[in-house]
Each structure stands twice: as C-alpha cells, then as structure tokens.
Design goal:
Number of strands: 12
Mean pLDDT: 94
Strand content: 5-15%
Radius of gyration: 20 Å
Number of domains: 2
CATH architecture of the largest domain: 3-Layer(aba) Sandwich
Strand order of the largest sheet: 1-9-8-5-4-2-3
C-alpha cells in the first residue's frame, strides 16, 4: 500500500498545486457519490466542517443548537464558536447516541438546529430527527466524524440532514495523513456558502462579502484519501471481523457490549464496551501490555470550558454513567487475529477474578 499512497503525493508535489485545486475537486465528487449527496466540500478538519456548516446556516449569537453531551468536545465547541449556545439533551443508554425524545424536549423558541452525533460508527435515529426538524423548521446537521460509510435504512451517514460533517483524522475509518474533513449536502446554496467561508468568504469575483476563515483542504491529504478510498471496503471488513469476534467472545460477561445496527450498517470506528469496574479492567489490560482508550472521560456539560452553562452532576445521568464505564478496546484494520485474541483472553481473565 506504500507506493499506492506515495506516488500520487509525489505527482501532486511536483505539480505545485498543494491547496484545493483539481485533486480536491476530484475527491469531493467521490465523497458526494459515496455519501449519496449532490455536493461535498473539502475542508481542513471535521471540527471546521461543523463550524463552517453552522456558520453557513446563519447560526450565531442568540441561537441555540441541541446536541449530545457525550461526544468529542469539538461538537459543542463548534457551536460555541459561532456565538450560539449548545443545549445538551441526554443520550439513549443503549446506543449512547442522542435521544430523540430528550432532544425534542430541549428544543425551544431560540433553537436553530439539532446536531446529532453518530457515535462510534453508529448512525443516530435520523428518521426521527428528520421528522422533528421538519415539524419545527430547524436545520439538521449530522456530526458524522466517526461514521463515514455507515448507513441507516439504506441512507448513508451525511445524507440525512441539511448537511453532514465528516472527519478524516488519521484514526478514522477513512483517515488522511493529517487533519482533513468534508461537508456533504444536497443543498447547492449551502455548499456554495461553505465553499466561500473556507477561503475567508471570498466569492467568484474575488471580493470578500462575509467573514470566513482558512478552512481549506490540503491537496496532499486529498490525494492520500483518494488513494485509500478503493481500499475502504477492506478496511471496514477487517474492523467488522474484529468486532464480531469481540461480541461473540465477550457475551455473557460483566461488560455491556455495543450492538450491531439492525436498521443499517455500523462501521466500528471504535469498539467501546461499558464495565462497572472500568478503571480496574483498564489497569489489568495495561499490565498485560494492551492499550485501551476512554471516550469520553467527562460528558461535555461537565467540561470546564462549558462551566458558563452552569450544569451540574446529575443533569444528564445516562451520559454521566457512560463516561464512568466506557472503555475502547483495540480495533483497527491492521490488528492481527492473535493480538485480538490476546485482548479477549485478558478481558476474560479479569472477569474470572485474576489481577
């Protein structure tokens, strides 16, 4: 795979066209086709995809955006960066995605958008969110940073809402060699505005009629992503195989296991279990030389940067409990079968009372 990635980068560097340009345009067409949308706009990161999309929708000071308290901090920070207020609603305990009932209850007269997160590669209940957004005339923005190529009811992540925001950070299911992201949408006017905002608000005439920023996609990252797209099916198949093995081997233990999506296709960007003795289990795995992750140590409403919202412990109990119990086991395409089996053995050893 090395030469297949380095050769297009070498050609690109020789061309001297390293920011936006035809390489990015070609990738945008492929991304739109994969997601089932009319347009895709390449941007600098998944975080900037969220910010640029909300800005392009006119979300700003005085507005509220309803979202999940159990996500990477960028989800809510993107809202705050526009001047709007993040309004949290609790998660569904089983899926750990934003609960549509709680989200609708959190909507008010200042709500401008709902922003569900497709956590850990599982698409949220978008058919329900779609109905809520339509009835209330709200924008619906998908945080699909962890769910590129995931689907629900035959529709791809990033095609349900007004826009979908994707991340191609190196650890994602489709990863670049650095930061990169994209906005997918079937609204041509929104796509054009995001395209302007990513270049400081510059229009086709060269004039800057609105405040934008530097959210451009690096063409080197686009070349790498284009080279990896044909390999994506194999990456996803490997992840799915590891997830299936974990699910089968760990059934019946104290671990609360993630679920397959009976209404779509999960992409297993992470494999996160929940365990009442999470920290003890993590220490046990570390003693066996096995690395794990915690996504996320704090729900967003308890993060210091959002203290101005004046939330307290107990406001969103499902998210808080998930943060206490969550543990990500190793899952990536290059993970060997013997390495995965060693993880399983170590978890079962812990469950059997070993230390």
């Amino acid at each position: 795979m090395g030469k297949s990635l380095t050769e297009p980068v070498e050609i690109l560097l020789a061309s001297g066209s390293c920011v936006l340009g035809p390489t990015v345009e070609s990738l945008e067409e492929e991304l739109a086709g994969r997601c089932g949308t009319r347009r895709a706009v390449g941007v600098s990161s998944g975080t900037d995809a969220l910010f640029a999309t909300l800005s392009a929708l006119g979300i700003g000071s005085g507005d509220e955006v309803v979202t999940s308290p159990f996500s990477f901090v960028a989800t809510a920070q993107a809202i705050a960066r526009t001047g709007a207020s993040p309004v949290f609603a609790d998660i569904d305990e089983a899926t750990m995605n934003l609960d549509p009932v709680a989200a609708e209850a959190a909507c008010g007269p200042r709500t401008g958008a709902i922003l569900p997160v497709h956590l850990f590669g599982l698409v949220a209940e978008m058919e329900v969110f779609e109905e809520i957004a339509r009835a209330r005339e709200l924008a619906l923005v998908e945080d699909a940073a962890q769910a590129f190529a995931a689907s629900r009811l035959g529709r791809m992540a990033g095609s349900w809402g007004t826009a979908g925001c994707h991340s191609f950070y190196p650890t994602k299911v489709l990863g670049a060699a650095g930061d990169a992201g994209a906005v997918t949408t079937s609204d041509p006017d929104l796509a054009e505005r995001v395209s302007r905002l990513r270049v400081h608000g510059e229009g086709p005439d060269g004039l800057h009629r609105e405040m934008g920023g530097n959210f451009r996609m690096d063409a080197v990252q686009a070349a790498i992503l284009a080279a990896k797209l044909p390999l994506l099916g194999g990456f996803l198949s490997a992840r799915r195989g590891h997830a299936t093995a974990y699910l089968e081997a760990l059934a019946g233990t104290d671990s609360v296991l993630p679920s397959e999506d009976s209404r779509g296709q999960r992409v297993w960007s992470q494999f996160c279990i929940r365990h009442p003795r999470r920290d003890d289990l993590r220490a046990h795995l570390a003693s066996r030389g096995i690395g794990t992750g915690v996504y996320y140590r704090l729900p967003l409403h308890l993060e210091p940067c959002f203290s101005y919202l004046r939330h307290r412990v107990g406001d969103f109990p499902n998210a808080e409990r998930a943060a206490r119990e969550i543990l990500a086991l190793p899952i990536f395409p290059e993970l060997r079968t013997d390495e995965r089996d060693r993880v399983i053995e170590a978890v079962l050893e812990f469950e059997g009372g070993a230390s």
